[in-house]
Amino acid sequence: MFIEPRVGNRHNAPRRGWIEVVCGSMFSGKTEELIRRLTRARIARQQVEIFKPALDTRYDTEDVVSHNAARIRSTPVAIPSEILLLAAGSDVVGIDEGQFFDNSLVEVCQQLADNGTRVIVAGLDMDYLGRPFGPMPALLATAEFVTKVHAVCVCCGEIASYSYRIAASESQVLLGETDSYEARCRPCFLEGMQTKALPSATQSAVTH
Ligand SMILES: [Zn+2]
């Protein structure tokens, strides 16, 4: 489990900023981990602000909600630079669904950390095709602390790091995760992708 190098700032030491990334597939507990860290910072009387992309409205427009319904108030923002304005005075900035922001999120996180803010970004490291997702790879490279969390493969029960899309859409952003995706391990993800790649006539021949 991740333990912060410093939670509060009791002795009024100079503020130190850094970047933490919590990444993984869908259903891996990223948001729960983000909420756990932010809750601890609040206990230490840190000023905490949470942001998420304005497009992510799956459950609630203002709360960051994890699958197990832990929630924390958050501010939806359209572009990362809004975070710089809205986070003024915060000790800790949490960002959920980081993969949906553009690459300017990396520079925004750097600026916040350079100015003494602890930044915690949660997000999908890979999209539904297994490709690095949005600004996440650059954030992983620049963060001081990286935590990769894992889901459980629904096919075989091994550790899962892929988000396998059940729905037919080919858009990189497809909201509504529980009915559109499942967590899969590498072999089960590959097997699913190969089955999808087969023409439908061959596919029905294979399955029947
Ligand atoms: Zn599996």
UniProtKB/TrEMBL annotation:
Subcellular location: Cytoplasm
Catalysed reactions, semicolon-separated: thymidine + ATP = dTMP + ADP + H(+)
Keyword ATP-binding tagged: yes
InterPro entries assigned: P-loop_NTPase, Thymidine_kinase, Thymidine_kinase_CS
Record-listed ATP binding positions: G24, S25, M26, F27, S28, G29, K30, T31, D96, E97, G98, Q99
Recorded family membership: Belongs to the thymidine kinase family.
Name of the protein in its database record: Thymidine kinase
Source species: Hymenobacter montanus
Organism lineage string: Bacteria, Pseudomonadati, Bacteroidota, Cytophagia, Cytophagales
